[in-house]
Amino acid sequence: MKFATVSKSLILGLAIVLATSAFAATKANLQLTNPVSVNGTTLKAGDYKIQWEGSGPDVELSIMQGKNVVAKVPARVVELPTPSANDAAVIRHDGSGTGLLAGVRFQGKKMSLELGDGMQADGSSK
User: Between these two residues, 94 and 4, which has the higher pLDDT value?
Assistant: First the structure.
């Protein structure tokens, strides 16, 4: 009986850990050298923290300065063919002066985030 109780507790504990990690937020740093627009909000040049939550390719990205969330935007996790050479903010220019933050890449990672401002309605890049 003790074995069955220990096994059930172990399985339950493992299931909780796996479920928690599947929905855990992921964090990174973002450095902007010029002002950019994100979901209608203009971010000044500077250092930000980003955090995204979600279990599938579609996530919600929060951009924070200190503990304050300054912008939220839908994003899509995209697999890259090769790891990114460095951390990079992907900026798209539309001729209005201020660039649009279209994505974020991470040094040494084969994934990037494409932001809602940089995606078409079907989720593909513009």
Answer: 94
